[in-house]
Write a structure and sequence with these properties.
The chain has one domain. It is 0% helix and 48% strand. The protein is built from no helices and 5 strands. The strands form 2 sheets. It has a 3-stranded antiparallel beta sheet, with no helix packed on it. A hairpin with a 2-residue loop joins strand 3 and strand 4. The model has no long low-confidence stretch (mean pLDDT 84). The chain binds zinc ion. Zinc ion binds next to loops.
Length: 63
């Protein structure tokens, strides 16, 4: 469970595990895709690398 600010309903909302639709783990951390209580889809970035996202190098595929 985590809290987000939803731009669609302009409210701070709690998101429960049942509202999570997908999780993506990339080189910048983890992106949790969810559906807000208002029905809008959203994405929340988290993970240890989140703070470095602004200065992260361009995406490079590992070979
Ligand atoms: Zn919402």
């Amino acid at each position: 469970m985590f809290d987000i600010h939803c731009p669609a309903c302009d409210r701070r909302q709690l998101v429960f595990p049942s509202q999570i639709t997908a999780m993506v783990n990339d080189e910048q951390g983890i992106v949790v895709m969810y559906t807000c209580w208002c029905g809008a889809a959203g994405a929340w970035r988290t993970g240890a690398a989140q703070a470095d996202a602004a200065v992260a190098p361009e995406h490079v595929l590992a070979s």
